[in-house]
Amino acid sequence: MSVGIFNRVLTGLLVFVLFSSVSFASSLKLTRDAENLEAYISHPKQLAVAKEKLAKLEAKTGKKPNLVIMLVDDMGWGDLGVYGGGVAIGAPTPVMDRLANAGLRLTSAYSQPTCTPTRASLLTGRLPIRHGIYRPPVFGEKGGLADEITLAELLSEVGYRTAVFGKWHLGKDPGQQPQNQGFDESIVMYDGSPKIFLSTDYKDKLREIYYDPELKAYIQNIIKKNPGLMKANKGEKAELALAINWDNAASLDQRFADYSVDFISRMTTQDDPFFLFHSFTKVHEPSLPTKEFAGKSPAKQVFQDSLMEVDAIVARIISALKENNLEENTLVLLLSDNGPDEDKFPDMGHTPFRGAKGGTWDGGVRVPAIFWWPGMIDPMRSSDGLFDFTDIFNTLLTVAGAQGKIPVDRYIDGVDQTSFLLTENGESNRNAVFMYTLNHLTAVRWREWKKHLMIAVIGDGTYAGGIGMKNEARIVRTPGQNIMNLYIDNKERVSVGAEKSWTMPFFGRIIKNHRQSLVKYPPKKKVLTMP
Ligand code: CA
What we know:
The protein is of the alpha/beta class.
């Protein structure tokens, strides 16, 4: 060991000892309201301000706020202009940029690495290790959401009208379908993309494996059972709303926008508040822009065309809220469900971070997150405060005045971020973000630091993507203290664990507490049953 490194390590250890004995307790002071609830950073003053704002608004409007989640599929952190992409990468996004500038833009919001776990976590406030939904359920498979308690169910219980339009991807079995998971109205595609409906007719349009006659028959049988968009009202049996084929696949997102716009306009005559979950199929591959958008992006690529179409659809939904004079009493979230899919060049999004969809390098899980609520959220705000998608569950329930509905019989990983969102320069209530790949805790973010417990190794780690199926990838335990500083190393290239060993006891405490919660509330090991 050279003298220089020896001195740095020695300094690190001295700081370690000081922090362990002096500052440790005060710096990690968290509040836990109940054994089954995640501990959080309490900000009593900003919470009082947020509560007062909500009370004043309710006194004025006479009802609880409406809640709208727009969830884009596979849109990267770096795709939006306001996050550094946009016109610079051949796809201007003026509507989403304006929405961000009129509200709050978060720069450290974390989803799960893939579609289905993210959706399940958002709707349950629980990490995949708790709800057990690590992958999409296949046709006929039972379990999944069936024994989970969803945001839509709890909002229904306090009088909200609830609807979901778009990609569901949370199971096809009746128990997992939206009308049995708290949604009054739903028109959804159960699958991850329209691809399966087009697969037996791929011919030369997309090269896939379905030329095999036996496999083709298998896929056709699946499609026969589930031929396209399925419509259902609460508790009813789902019916076919639209068979998906090559002629209409590109226009699915415009149809979903039709449904959401119609729902919003009908809600103006209701006394009840509403919860709308608008879930895009775009910009998941294969990108299929409608004719109106095909070739219109400066990039002249289907991905960028589709991103511009998403931008235009966001405009349709925001316009519907404004035209119906609902913006004053509606909290709008615009999110992406995971990082960009880098397996399908050039049909793919962008991120300034390392990795992509499928892994827990930041590129896979750090996503755009915009909150818009005129009069309630200050314009031109941005924050790097930590936010996990599980927080959406607790936060929306609090905004709806339904925090008392949060389950007591299971662990809830989300924390209430209402005061972070609604107060001027509000600070995050979240102490750390736990990143999982399947059931492995692979990384933990705390402040600007990120500790890797396991990493995905793919090629040289720079371009090849996340741990998508098209890449050779493996997950390995990291040697020693693999700790990155995301503020000086956004590509997570260099561990500073030896020099910054003072971070070790903080991470140690955070991980120990998390693991203890898993002892008290054991993970779900098998929730899906293959047919
Ligand atoms: Ca996705």
